[in-house]
Each structure stands twice: as structure tokens, then as C-alpha cells.
Amino acid sequence: MDIHVLTIFPDMFPGVIDASIVGLARTRGVVGVHLHDLRDHTNDRHRSIDDRPFGGGPGMVFKPEPVFRAVEAIERSISSDRAVRRVLLTPQGERFTQPAAERLAKADALILICGHYEGFDERIRTGLKPDELSIGDYVLSGGEVPALVVIDAVTRLLPGALGDERSAPEDSFSRGGLDFPHYTRPVEFRGMRVPDVLRTGDHDRIEAWREMKARERTRARRPDLLDSARPERDRATATPETSQTTNGRRKP
């Protein structure tokens, strides 16, 4: 995958995208992260990317011309047979979730458009028709931090990004709820012991314990996720009357 980031602060990215999972994935050729300065797509000597809003009010608004030019230039550099998704980072967007990250991970290329100041000229939304994403119900100074969140969440889903391919499917939210508790050595620390079941070597018992603990944690901390937190074991033991094949037809 190639991820193109359109921003007026490209210097905010290198420290993050060069480190940890994203940095390793870039080194392995799993993902390419390309930074584009929006000011390079202006045509005035001041390299203006914003202006005062019509109708008055505080703040400045991103102008449509440089954003359109930048997106179109990026897309011209991408092979026509590759699936590209445009993404606008905005507090007015859909809440960014694990399923949203999974959808984006299926694309061949992403264009992440980072806003700043008061917002975007509405014609950027209506003309470019991007996906609109928000990482939470709060306001940040710009779209750069949300873009980094999206880059990290999507990259770890790409084949070859993680050392163990089982890691991503077992993360919190990947199965609909929160993750189960994890333990490592030592067996006892300040009077707190590792649960005995995790040391039995009985993988069926361990999996059952993990599913139970994941549901308990989800119920206690995020009960809103319970509807989607049904574990794989429940689906596997569904009755024939409720089981379905992959094409949606009921099994006999």
C-alpha cells in the first residue's frame, strides 16, 4: 500500500512514521508513506492555502484550489489500475473504528487530507467526495495527528507488517469487543499471580478463558460494544437453523 499525506506541516510526521511497526513496515516495503506539502500546489507568491470565510466569523478556511490541484497531482502519479481512497480528516466525519481501518486496508493507495485552522471550503467535500473520518469527539489543531492514527491502525493490518500475523485479529475491537488480559514472567509479582489456566498448556481451556475475560472486560468498560462482541466460538456453535453459508443462504 501507498499512503499519501497532504498537509501544511510535513515535519510533524517523520519521527512517528520512522519508528515502531510503521517504520519496520516501510523498511520491509509493506507500506510507503509519502508526504506532500499543500503549499507546493499554490500559485501565488505568498503560497496561500487559506482565506477568510464568506459571511464573516473567526478563523481561516482552506481554499479549494490548492487541495484539488494536490489531490489530482497525487492521483496522476498512481497507476490507473490501483484502487485509491480519498480520506478527509475532520471532526465532522464518521468515527474512526477498527472496521473502518479494515476497510481502508483493502485499498491499494490512500490520500489523507489534513485540515487546519477553521476548516475546509465545503466544495472540497462536495467536489472530491472523500471518506470523512474523525478519531473522536474533540477538536484538535489540525488533521496531522488523526492522519498518524489512521496510518498506524491501517499499516498494522497489512500482510507482513507484524511479526506474528495472528496479532492483529486478536487486538481489541478486531473481534467486536475489548481484548483479554495478558500476562508474562514472572509468575508472581508483589503478590499478584498469573492465572493458573494460562500455565496448563491446554489450548482449548486457555481460549475459553480468554473469550470469557474479553467479554467480562467489554461488559464492564464498553457495554456499547456487546452487540458486536459475540466471540467466534458462539458463531461456530450456532444451531443449523440459524447458521448461514457465505452466500447468505441458510444451510439445510
Describe it for me?
This protein is an alpha/beta fold. The chain has 2 domains: 2-155, Alpha/beta knot (3-Layer(aba) Sandwich), CATH 3.40.1280; 172-236, tRNA(m1g37)methyltransferase, domain 2 (Trp Operon Repressor, Chain A, Orthogonal Bundle), CATH 1.10.1270. It has helices at residues 14-17, 20-27, 64-76, 98-104, 122-128, 144-155, 203-221, 232-236, and strands at residues 2-7, 32-37, 50-51, 61-62, 84-95, 109-114, 119-120, 131-134, 188-189, 192-193. The strands form 3 sheets. Strands 2-1-6-5-8 form a 5-stranded parallel beta sheet, sandwiched between helices. It has a 3-stranded mixed beta sheet with strand order 3-4-7. It has a two-stranded antiparallel sheet with strand order 9-10. Strand 9 and strand 10 form a beta hairpin. The two termini are 41 Å apart.
What is the compact description of this entry?
This protein is α/β, with parallel strands linked by helices.
